[in-house]
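Q: I have 160 residues here and want to know how they pack in 3D. Can you give me a structure?
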Amino acid sequence: MSARFVIDTSSLIRLSRENPRSRYPKIWDRVEELIEKGLLRAPREVRLELERGDDELTEWAKARSELFVDPDKAQTQWLEEILRRFQALVDPDRTSPFADPWVVALVLYLNSPEHSVPENPWIVVAEEQPKGTGSTKIPDICAAFGLECINLIGLFSSIK
C-alpha cells in the first residue's frame, strides 16, 4: 500500500515559497496526483488558514476541494482530547483559523480502526520542529499520540 499523508499549512506554504508552481511544475503535479489518489489530505482549517492570503497558493487551494476534509463528530472528539492534553492550544480570544490541532485530530480519526489498517497509518506532514515535553508544536502533539510526523523532504522521500 502507498503511504498516506495529512498536510499542515506550514508545509503547503513552504512548498509554494521554495518550489513555485511556475518553476517546478513536476513537483506540483506529484502533489496533485497524491490528492487525486486520496493519499494526501488536510483538514478544512488548513484551507481556511490559506484563504487568509491572497496569492497563487490561495487560488490553488480553492480549486482543490478534494484535498480538504470537513470536520465531523469523531474528529471533533479527537480535537477535544488534544485540547484537553494541550491546554496551551486553547485561546478563547483567537478569531482566526488555527489548523494545528485539527491536523492531528484528522490523522487520529483516519488512523482509527474503522478507517484504517495499522500497517498503513496516515502520517502528519508539518514544517514545525519539536520543542519537547509539554510543547504545543505539531511534532510534540504527534509524539504524545504515537503518530509519525515528517516534513516536506520526508514526504517526497516517502513517495519516490
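Q: Anything worth noting?
A: The chain has a mean pLDDT of 89. Strands lie at 4-7, 40-43, 68-69, 122-125, 149-150.
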